[in-house]
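--- STAGE predict ---
source: upstream dedup step, 1 unique chain passed
mode: sequence only
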Amino acid sequence: MCASKLDFYTNVCEDFNAYIPQAKPKIETFHPFFEDAFWEMLLNGGKRFRPKLFLAVLCAFEKNVEVVRASFPVALALEVLHTYSLIHDDLPCMDNADERRHHPTLHKTYDVTTATLVGDGLNTYAFYCIAQAPLESALKVQLIALLAQCGGIEGMLLGQALDCYFEGQALKRAQLEELHTLKTAKLIAASLKMGALIAQVYGHTPEGLPDTLFSWGLKLGLFFQVRDDIIDRTQSPQESGKSTQLDTLKNNYVNLLGLSQAQAYLQELKAYLLKTLAAFPPTLGLYLQTLLKELA
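--- STAGE serialize ---
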């Protein structure tokens, strides 16, 4: 039973991965390379973690594959918005990274202007993706508002502003937690809640599921960030697929707690996530536990 349930979700994720190249927008322009540059980072791989979270929730409650596929533009919006943030994060004015997803960063392949404008374009295109999804209009308004909130001045964007401004200045642990809740955790939490909002309209879900998953997702986001901080300190660019050792002056968990205590905190967060996961509906718990194993 578990294997067949997992197969459905795995197949949907594979279908979504195949959908990404097909979804590349046609840009009518005489610019020599902007159309290819615009979608390049989407085609360079990545974990697709946020879309997988979104699809895990949706697939747990909706078994009509056509309804699930109708939501692919929403999953794409999450990946598009996340990719814009990576492109801007890698710019010389921020992390000045050379590599991302085992490829040169966009400003290295082209130039800083192109990378900046591609990031700007992906940011706006994410909301266009949701607007064009074949879903109810009222639902799309909810999804757009949530993504704007968690990706913007109440979430990721504000977190990035804090991260950059306080570089080289030691924050207290509570401040660091707030920074990374904004910068990383809110978009991850939004991915889960967006899946629940759609499942709520088209399927049968437990009462209060969107908010429950959002709260759980904030802890998952912190787990993801602590793990990323440890990877930056302990792995080479070849192992991680991106430039590492860039956070020497940044406020992160390894710098604040030391490597061993950061690793202990990571295990503490993982134990919490697995324990609370047990209270979720069985199929949803199975899908989310599978994603957690990918991060282990």
